Amino acid sequence: MTEPPKINQIAVLFCSCFKLNKAERFILVPLVLNKLNVMKFLLNGGAVFLIICFLISSCKSKDKAADQSVKYDKVFFDYTITAEEGGPYATCMFQYKKDGLDGNAINIAPGKVELDGQALEGDSAGLSGYYYEIQKPLDSFGGKHTIVFTNPADDQYKEEFEFTPFTLAEELPAKTLRKPFVIHLKNFPKTKTPLRLLLLDTAFESRGFNDIVPVVNSEISITQSILSTLKKGPINLELYMEEERPLQQHGSAGGRLSITYGLKRAFELE
User: Contact, 113 vs 119, CB < 8 A?
Assistant: First the structure.
């Protein structure tokens, strides 16, 4: 078996060192390889050694210990809930950012954060920083939930939210004529609610449709204007409810709760 190219070895070390998750690897690794290939003529044995030493030293400099200088009244609470129909889990990720939304995510020990009474373990990632994450079975996650953050001074901040997964009331036909139609949703608010609609075809020159549309009485109108952005053939449809609101209880830096839920379908446009 031949030894992997040195450039690939560096990319692997980059992922390992900074603990990139799958999404971060998908975005960053091709960029890293591209940059390294551009400078391939510099990558002799000595240069590779220096790069590896730099990455290792960067790894060792990442300290997971709690920052004792943090003023918790100036920490921004960032709560994110994401799930998709058909997936096994709803992912709940909570971060506490020093000095506001754009600050570094910190370790809150000896404080803690709980979801429905269950304490979450902390971890860190190369790009997102320190976070607290838990995955809950999606089929039983619908309903009301409570997040409780207790800082090291035993001050508590409670946040309640409701997770409501929706679906299609009627499945789309396998083939659809190029005429306006309506998508009916089930378990969706009856009041006017914004929803992200994506319709993507397979034509290289087509941009498809990607925008926020109003949902009234749980119905999405696919107009002639929307259909005009699509080419004939296979169509991928995606719907996402993207809710973001300020927290009910937080420090002076504020906080937000983001809930994203989506579903996907496919049909053929004739």
Answer: yes
